[in-house]
Amino acid sequence: FEFEYVAIGDGPERAALEQLTAQLGLGDRVAFRRVLPHEAVVRELCTSDILVHPSECESFGIAVAEAMAAHVAVVAARSHGASEVVDHGGLPIHQRRPQPRRRRRE
What we know:
The chain is of the alpha/beta class.
């Protein structure tokens, strides 16, 4: 299936995510945008099919509310702020920390 993933903003994991994107050979499908003016973020939202919002810390859930107002499907982590908005029409997910993978015996 075809997809394009656009990550907007900066954060402490950005470099690691860019490196992982390159390692997985997804550079043609994943785009990283720096912090954008609000109008540009809204334009990006309006061309999107889905907003994935994994943030563990969101004060008011504004990004989620804006996506829902633009009729964009929302999948968001249960966090303060976003949870209250997502519960009214999005798909809330519970955060879980990834566990180290064990090597399978053959």
